Amino acid sequence: MVERPEILGSVFEVLGVPLSAKATVDAVTTDVTETRPLERRVDTVLRIGPSDGEDFLLAIESQSGRVAGKEASWAYYVAYLQAKFRLPVLLLVVCQDGPTAKWAAGPFDCGTRGWTALRVYPLVAGPDNLPVITDARTAAKNLALAVLSALAHARNPDCDAILEAISSALQELRETDPDTAEYFFDFLEVTLGKTPAGEKWNRIMSFVSYFPGRGTVRETAYLEGKTEGRAEGEAKGILSVLEVRGIPVTDSVRERITSCTDLDRMDTWLERSRTVERAEDLFDDEGNADKSIA
């Protein structure tokens, strides 16, 4: 995304946060895990470098409903990212309904006996402040806003039209800026997940030859498999999804994936790659005898 710094301007305008016209934008790892027991990941993290001030991080989290204890995770995200990168952090929570958005706005306090050790004020985007963008030209001009609109309006009957507009915009953008188009494509696949809107997005993509080797889970394997063999294509698809989700892959896991020739097993790994917390979890329910694949 670094080549299109203006792409987030409309989003910050909606949120009421000033951002200079010139700014660099780059994606950073979404893994905010220090040790294995602390398996927490935010959906995406962007490093933004405005021309008129210091760099900062924007952590984006999609929230479909109120979840007990989530505010503690948000406080962790902000504190951990600031400590790790030594940069200010803003947290954007994209909600799918008004009550969730009202709750997500906080503020959320960490403290006791009248003292506050940490207070989190998330930026909140939802159906009430994100427009419904169903026109492909409008989506192309405000791509980040359209993508967040798809998340916020995922339960809205208009969501299908939003996704169609984004699809058209991405097809046009990939001709001049494939990296940014690929980023938004993968972001939507991961954040929409297995929701009805996510299923719609995957159906749309099944008819579009997007980014061979970096597209949807099943389409990646299929497209790569045409020229490189189905197994190799599926292996690339699995590793691609894990990479997009910010999940570390050890050499042993990579070797196990790339050396496998059992297509049914790889189909299972492809599905699991979208939801697992650790790469090793791909192999759950497999016997010890299966753990070395020649």
UniProtKB/TrEMBL annotation:
PANTHER family xref list: SLL0800 PROTEIN (PTHR34613), SLL6017 PROTEIN (PTHR34613:SF1)
The protein's name in its UniProt record: Transposase (putative) YhgA-like domain-containing protein
Gene source species: Streptomyces canus
